[in-house]
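Researcher: Structure prediction, please.
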Amino acid sequence: MSRYTSLLKKLSTGLLGAFLMVSCAPATAEFVSVGRLKQALAGGGELSLVAQGYILGVVDATWGVAHCAPNTLKADKALAAVTGFMAKLEDDDKTSADQAITYLFSKAYPCPTKGVTL
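Model: Predicted structure follows.
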């Protein structure tokens, strides 16, 4: 089970579908951009919860591959780090939000290189 199960359980399938419909053009496979994610986070309410779930999903999906954040990292700390990082980025629709999140965590929590023991 995910480290963020309690927050993710709060999100319903309908809200996720609504977020994806708002985030993507109907006939293309667009990504969620930094600008769109920042808008969703700033909007508050249910859409903000979905955006938070998106962020935690990216962090969870890339854990152990792109970054090695500690298992003790709490959801609120991860969200605060991403929100602070996003605030420094331009509101554009050209930068992929998942790539920005992955970049942040890969720099903050790099995985040990092969051959190195912990």
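Model: The domain at 5-108 is CATH 1.10.890.40 (10k-s Protein, Hypothetical Protein A; Chain A).
Researcher: Thanks, that helps.
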